[in-house]
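Researcher: Before we compare anything, I want clean individual predictions. No alignment, no superposition, just each chain on its own. First chain goes here; please echo the sequence and then give the structure tokens.
Model: Echoing the first chain and its structure:
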Amino acid sequence: MARFHCPLPLHTGDAVSLPPSAARHVQVLRFQPGDGLTLFNGEGGEFEATVTRMGRSDVDVLVGAHHALEREASRRIHLLAGVTANERMDWLVEKATELGAVRLTPLSAERSVLKLQGERAEKKRAHWQAVAVAASEQSGRNRVMQIDPACSLAASLASLGDAGGLRVMLSLTTGAQPLQSVVADHSDVMVLSGPEGGLTLAEEALALAAGFVPVSLGSRVLRAETAPLAVLAALTL
């Protein structure tokens, strides 16, 4: 059954007008009154729903039974990922959502090809959040990965404060330890990954001072958009 993100308070028996993005999707799929669909608002579980009215630009539904289904990974993974070129970043956001990351902080690192500031940065964040919503709808997740505003590594580390959990940094340095040996049974993991060209020595030093442990994925060099997804696959599947 088709699934739609509906970020509204939902309760069985409510008559609801779908938000514009969900309404457009329902109309594109040519739903008719009486057709069933699934709604989730990101607060847990999902709801059955039935279309009651198809307007020219709006759609009304009747909210049905709630099902307390969760398809989240056993580990909570927060990615801090260097911003990559446009389509590659979209792909990273989509796949990270499918693989179960709970939060992604895009980093405008020193070697990032795409530099984001001001209004352009906010438009990109909104676009990536929409990509994450669509990936949750497709993959069956009832939660949506949070996309933070893009910022520098220094600003991101400052905002973390004393946040708990294990902190690891993908690194090609000689002393980097195998990922699995460091993560072990940790349930909350923060993963730092650089952009094309990787993090600079100064950025790695900042991360080390903030408690990040250098880890390795093996002898091969993975692309900037591949490496964090390899970590997610290893830790969440």
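Researcher: Okay. Second chain, same rules.
Model: Second chain and its structure:
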Amino acid sequence: MPSRAEIVLFDDSPPPPGASPWVAGATPATGIEVADQDPSWPRQYDYLAGRIRETLGWRAIQLDHVGSTSVPGLAAKPIIDIDLTVADPGREQDYLPALQKIGFRLTIREPWWYGHRCLRADEPSCNLHVFGFDSPEPIRQRILRDWLRGNPGERDRYAAAKREAASAANAGGEHVMQYNARKQQVIREIYHRAFVAAGLLDE
């Protein structure tokens, strides 16, 4: 289980020299779309989660709908983000072949960042983030999700930052990682208030 300090500390270290998170043939997306909240997003998550659980069985230790599509009323890129917890993300043979059979493809491999892997699927569009049970990132994402669900002002503040970042990124021909960087300050401020409210940080 991650410590309190690990949960509130963001690791912004770059990849090791010569390493890239993108697997061969995968590149960050451009043309960022931030759409109004779609009431079908929770149903899309349920469908995807059911398929993942069916194919992985007990190897899927935990599944969570995270990201902006998990927050009612929040504008979002129309891509369902799911956190999948497995025993060891480094043992890709335990989960990757099974997920590939149901339409997922590996796009990101970051062993230096909590062992993170990201897989993509279409129809419905999904980013499946794979972590180990000792990673603080899924905990952070659940805290943020629940904070935004319970605080409409924070949700609206984040939505405005997302739309502004998407507009600027698209105008500059930037990709999704640059879009994320543009909204990082606002989301870190929201995280800070959520951590304080949860007792993870002092005021």
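Researcher: What stands out in the second chain?
Model: The longest helix spans residues 152-171. Additionally, The radius of gyration is 17 Å.
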